[in-house]
Each structure stands twice: as C-alpha cells, then as structure tokens.
Write a structure and sequence with these properties.
The complex is a heterodimer of chains A (about 290) and B (about 250). With about 290 residues, chain A is an all-alpha fold. Helix content of chain A is about 80%, strand content about 0%. Chain B is α/β, with parallel strands linked by helices and about 250 residues long. Chain B has 2 domains: about 170 residues, Rossmann fold; about 70 residues. Classes of the chains: A mainly alpha (about 290), B alpha/beta (about 250). The interface between A and B is large, with 40 and 45 residues. Bound molecules: adenosine-5'-diphosphate (ADP) and magnesium ion (MG). The site of magnesium ion has 3 residues of chain B, from α1.
C-alpha cells in the first residue's frame, strides 16, 4: 500500500537528507528513460510463463488426442476465433459498452458516497456497515431477479456491474480521505481553511494515489461483471455468445471469447495507468 | 508584530493531563524558545496557542486582546515539513495566502520575492521531492512567514535534520530573523539551538507540564558559531541542562 499513500511518505523523505544531495530539477528529468526498461521487466516474466503454458497445453492435446469438445488446442482456439472474428467483434462491442456505462455509474456512486461520508460522521457510521452488507449479496441469485424487474436492456447489467465494482472504489476513497495526516489538517486549520478547503487542498489530492489503486481493482471486476450479467440474460454480448457456444459444444469458441475478455480487461487495466500518469504526475512511484 | 501572553493554560486528553497551567510572555520582536523533555506537551502547547485545540482553562492574549481559540494571529510551522508532493515548491509556499483569499498571481509574487533569501532560488517549479532536507525546512518556513501573521510558532523546525545541516540552518535563521524582526516562539529540545537563537528560553517540566524556569540569554548579537564557544554560552547551556535534568527519571 505504500505507493498509494502519498502523504505518509512525506515525513520519511524529510529525514536525514543533507543539503549536498539536493537535485536540480533538470537532473531529475533524466531519470525517465529507465522507465521503458521497467515496463519490459514487468511484462516479460508473465509473458514467458503464458507462452510456456500454451506450449505444454498444445503438446498435451496433440499427444493425448483430446477431443476438441472437451479441450481444444490453443492453436484451434485462435484459428476458430479468427474464423468467427466478425461475430466475436459484434458481441464485444455491446459488452464494452455495458462495461463502460456500468463502471461510469459505479464511479459516480462511489465518489458521491465517499465524499458524503467524508463530510458527515453520521453518514460514515450509517453507511459503512451497509456498504459491507452490499458485498455479501449473492449476485448470482440477484442477477436473474434484476432481469425480471428491469428486462433485458442495459439497466440490469449496469446495476450488476455497479454492484460488484462500486465497493472497492468507495472504500478506497473513504480510506484515502481519512488517511490524511492529522498534522496536515492542523496546518490547514492554522491557515484558516474551511472544511471544504481542507478537502479540496489536502484530502482530495492525497487520496488520489489510493483511488487509482481502487480503480484498477474495480475495472477488472467490471468486465467479468458484464460477462456474468450477459450470461444470465442478454440479446448480445460476449456473455451470451459464450452461453450459446457452450450449449452447442463449441468449447473452442467459448475459449476464444474468454481470450477476448481477458484482452479487454488487460487493456482497460493498462488504461488506468495512463490516466493515472496524466492526472497525478507527481506520484512518481507509479 | 505583536506581543503574546500565555496565561495558565491547562489541557488534558482523555485520561492524560498534558498542560498543567502554562504561563509565559513574549515581547514584540522577541525570540523565545520553549524547551522540555520529549512528550511533555510542547506540541500540545502550540496546538492550543495556535487555536487548533481549545484549552480546558487559561487564555491566550495577543496585544492584550483575547485570542484564545483564534488561528489568525499565528503562523504555525508543524514538526514535519508537510510539503505536499502534488504542488510545486512555489505553490506549497503560497498555500496560506491562497487560503486567505489572496489572488494567485499576487501570492506567487510575494512568495517568489523571498526565494533568494531562503536559499531556494531556481527551485520555484521543482517538486518537494527534489529538495534536500534543509531546503525542505526552509520552504516550510517560507510558507509560514509569508503569511505575515503577528506571531510565528515554530515546532522543532530543525528536528529532522542531520547535525551539520542543522547548524547551518541555525546560523542562517539567526541572520534572517535579524533582518525581519519577527516575533517568534520556537519549540526545541536542543539546548544549544535554544541558546544560540533566543532572547529568552522557557523551560518546561515533565508531563503534566508547567513552566519550571526562564533564562534570559544576554549574549550579544549578531551571534555566530564563535558565540557557541564563549564562556557565557556554556554557563547558560549548563544552567538549562541543570533545569531540564532536575527530577528527571
Ligand atoms: N490528539 C491527541 N490525543 C490524545 N493524546 C495526545 C494527542 N496529542 C498528543 N497527545 C499526547 O500528549 C502527550 C504530549 O504530546 P506532545 O505535545 O506531542 O509532546 P512533545 O511535543 O513535547 O513531544 C503525549 O503523551 C501524546 O501522546
Ligand atoms: Mg512535539
């Protein structure tokens, strides 16, 4: 959690650094090129592992002559996925749309709740247990009910996604605001800052690193949440596509859709890093 | 600039009496240090004087007028530098002026003018992480004095620095203060620092704390490192050390 905790790092940095170690602003900028190497270092090991697993899988399927209905080889999944690319793409778009709309609603709800809780001790006491209860709801039982109530349109899916993703966002923000250093609050109060100014000048920016951590957790749930909601009932989307292919024993196409889902999740996940760098460039630990 | 009078302040946290009737005066333009053992309540005293905590009893007077619970007569420098990483050094130093409602360009101009004096010229647009420990403390001090409040309250301003940087900062502060004529109350637990910088030193006892002793530092100004080797300096330091260790467990 240390990288998410911008404020807590301040005192640590203040200790024992002599004047001679002052860095000229220009000097600090020359550090950027090393970042490219860092990305390669981070991406290479999981990539190697995945390739290794795929090779083992391919060899095993061929060696033991497994039926494709049970377990298709990775090459077959790619081959069939490519052959059905238009169908896959046509089903990816609605899933992406539902994911983004659902996640936007979730962000809105998470922010409104967290800010309200930060300003009202009464709301904090009232809402905290309810937030936890919302996470104990068995979505698997509730999703079909949502479809009975709201039909096969966008709404029930948006509700499912919001339900599974608003929690990490709200909690990340609530904790981020609350983690504000007491001394920092005192400093602002000594300057005569109102509660709103304290929020705007310290609590909000201080919570952003933690918010982006929460955002990443939320976005990975969002895609799977969308697939799940579609699986239960939809007219289009990767979830319903998987369900249909499963029913016709096209395991290869189910897996092809799984691959698309994974790519979608990873892309959205990577996007959060990009947004983070744009919004909080000062958080150098990213 | 104004004079400050602290009258019989008491303060207890639940189950923990901290201040037990603390009284002292500070004249206009005077530099007074408050020293006391660790945990005796020095920061708590500042929290109460600066209006961030209500005292259980007692008063704070500025220029003879009741200022208990008010924040506006005081510019407060907390124990940690608390420079915010999301602001440039310049934007950190204008924080108090922004809160006071001063237009941004005016605030920046005013803070910028102090950068050379504070040894920060060229670092206006740097991030706090790019500053050394000594520079961070000077930036925090700049943020404090630029608010132009009547009384400066500095809580262990050099506590986090290594001893070499610390000595440099002390002589620097002595010089700068001579130029500005601030009214300063500084908390420290460093006797040498207190004697070098102060006109008067207030000694606090262990918690629940009260003023145990006051020493006038009658060393001539300007003072520099040579001052610290004078006989009178050693006498005053010895007297303070004696008061601090009295009854100490
Ligand atoms: N907000 C607070 N609530 C409860 N106890 C506190 C609070 N602030 C300080 N204390 C306690 O008061 C005592 C004095 O603390 P402090 O004033 O920070 O001492 P000093 O600055 O002299 O080292 C300590 O025992 C500390 O734990
Ligand atoms: Mg203290």
């Amino acid at each position: 959690m240390s990288r998410a905790d911008g404020l807590a790092q301040i005192p640590a940095r203040a200790h024992g650094r002599a004047d001679s170690r002052a860095r000229r602003p220009r000097l600090a900028r020359t550090e950027t090129p090393t970042r490219g190497v860092g990305v390669v270092r981070r991406v290479a090991p999981p990539l190697v592992l995945v390739v290794l697993l795929l090779v083992v899988w391919q060899v095993a399927v061929v060696a033991f002559d497994v039926r494709p209905q049970v377990l298709p080889s990775p090459l077959r999944v790619v081959e069939q996925g490519w052959a059905y690319r238009e169908q896959l793409w046509a089903n990816t778009l609605p899933t992406l749309q539902v994911t983004l709309v659902g996640f936007a609603v979730s962000l809105l709800v998470g922010w409104v709740l967290a800010v309200a809780v930060d300003f009202s001790p009464w709301l904090r006491r009232a809402l905290t247990p309810l937030l936890v209860v919302s996470q104990t709801l068995p979505i698997i039982a509730i999703a079909p009910l949502l479809i009975i109530w709201f039909g096969f349109g966008l709404l029930p899916k948006v509700v499912v996604i919001a339900l599974v993703t608003f929690f990490p966002i709200a909690v990340g923000l609530i904790e981020g605001f609350a983690a504000t250093d007491r001394q920092a609050t005192n400093l602002l109060r000594s300057m005569g800052a109102s509660r709103w100014e304290q929020f705007r000048l310290v609590r909000l920016p201080g919570a952003l690193p933690r918010f982006f951590t929460a955002l990443r957790i939320g976005i990975t749930y969002a895609v799977t949440g969308a697939i799940f909601a579609e699986y239960v009932g939809a007219t289009a989307g990767l979830g319903i596509f998987m369900n249909l292919q499963k029913n016709s024993f096209r395991t290869d196409l189910v897996l092809a859709a799984v691959v698309v889902t994974a790519v979608l999740s990873v892309a959205l996940f990577a996007l959060t890093y990009l947004v983070e760098r744009l919004v909080i460039p000062w958080n150098r630990d990213v | 600039m104004s004079d400050l009078r602290v009258e019989g302040l008491t303060k207890a946290y639940p189950g923990l009496p901290v201040l037990d009737g603390v009284s002292f005066d500070v004249d206009t333009g005077e530099f007074v240090s408050v020293i006391g053992p660790s945990g005796c309540g020095k920061s708590t005293l500042f929290d109460v004087v600066a209006g961030m905590e209500r005292p259980d009893s007692g008063r704070v007077l500025v220029d003879g007028k009741d200022a208990t619970g008010r924040v506006d007569p005081f510019a407060y420098m907390p124990q940690q530098d608390l420079l915010f990483p999301w602001r440039t050094v310049l934007a950190n130093t204008t924080l108090g002026l922004e809160v006071a409602g001063m237009p941004r360009s005016e605030a920046r101009e005013r803070a910028r003018a102090l950068f050379p004096t504070f040894g920060l010229a060229g670092f206006e647009d740097a991030r706090p992480a790019q500053l050394s420990g000594g520079m961070r403390q000077r930036a925090a001090l700049l943020r404090t004095v630029v608010q132009d409040r009547p009384v400066l309250l500095l809580d262990e301003p050099f506590g986090a620095l290594d001893s070499l940087t610390r000595t440099g900062m002390q002589t620097w502060l002595a010089d700068v203060r001579a130029g500005f004529g601030w009214t300063v109350v500084m908390v420290t637990h460093d006797i040498r620092e207190a004697v070098l910088l102060s006109d008067r030193v207030v000694v606090l006892g262990p918690r629940p704390t009260t003023v145990r002793h006051e020493v006038v530092v009658d060393l001539p100004r300007p003072r520099d490192l040579a001052t610290t080797t004078s006989v009178r300096f050693s006498e005053i330091a010895a007297e303070l050390l004696g008061m601090l260790t009295l009854n100490a467990v």
